[in-house]
Amino acid sequence: MNAVTPTAPQPITDAEVKAALDLAVAQIRRNLPAFTYACQNHSSVGNFYPAVENTQWTAGFWPGEIWLAFEHTGDKVFQHAAQIQVQSFLHRIENRIETDHHDMGFLYSPSCIAAWKLVGDEDGRKAAILAADQLIERFQPIGQFIQAWGRKGVAEEYRYIIDCLLNLPLLYWASRETGDAKYHDIALLHARTTLANSVRPDNSTYHTFYMDPVTGAPVRGATKQGYKDDSFWARGQAWGIAGMALSYRYEPIDEYRKTFDRLLDFYLKKLPADLVPYWDLVFSEKDGEPRDSSSASIVACGLLEMADLVEADVAARYRELARRMMKSLSEHHAVKDPAMSNGLVLNGTYSKKSPYNTCRGEGVDECVSWGDYYYMEALTRLSRAWSSYW
Ligand code: GLY
To answer: Does the beta carbon of 27 sit less than 6 angstroms from any atom of ligand 1?
Structure first.
């Protein structure tokens, strides 16, 4: 792992972690009236999240924030609101509302698994198992992967994406809960397929990867949300780093650990001095492109996850690096004034249009709901021995 530059932010202190969490929790409390019976949009508009129905892939992050606020404070007002959200998630999966995609883990881990783990919410458990059932329906034995989007089996949609590594903990959890190995077995196969194909020789990653629906052979990497096919979408690299750490937790083989270090090394080499990446790592300061602060929070969580799994000296390095990233985020990107935003962290980028991708240009230089969630998760991991929702 490369040393960070001498001008990098100092590691965040324990007192600063607590202050940042207090600030975030106060904002979440202010948001409860607007977002107890509604969801936050995937990203803010002019730094304010609109309220939306529970139909997006991102809906799980807001209840995840509420659960983290509950853990930080013990205040039952958060439990009450988060359990109302659980009912909406149960309804969504029972009626299969906008569930024809792979993002069941992003939806159901921070909302419903959290509810089951923290307060024994039986409906949370039921909903999460139904979500795991839906997710394994997308498994393609020919090629051994979970198909991300679109009609199953169609050649032009026959692909997985690196982000899906974060959907797999739902499956590991479902096998532990039900005693049925089928979920776990599919998760392991998908993670191995990602390991085999998604990392380029220079340690960057492909966002999406196509497989051959007849032979199952790897076909080609491509992007959807990065600048172009051969650039380095910052969040894809972050999902890869966090996903390798989680994969190593569930299957502790050296390849995941080595790949984690390779991906991290590439990511660090492309970072500006303040450790918050531009939305694609191909850019630098001179390009005037927006940041994606959410990538930094995701990587911090990946570092803190891996730190729990490795020997003490390596863990200390990962934790220090995560603390530096969190210092930068909390000092320069966190929302300090509710008049400016109803989110937690500014300067995220969801889906920036480029001449080479198919993005519509949403959530550019805005708060993004997973950015807020992972920011809180990283602070929580730094503040206590945290029992993961993933
Ligand atoms: N998983 C989609 C995204 O990170 O935007």
So the answer is: no
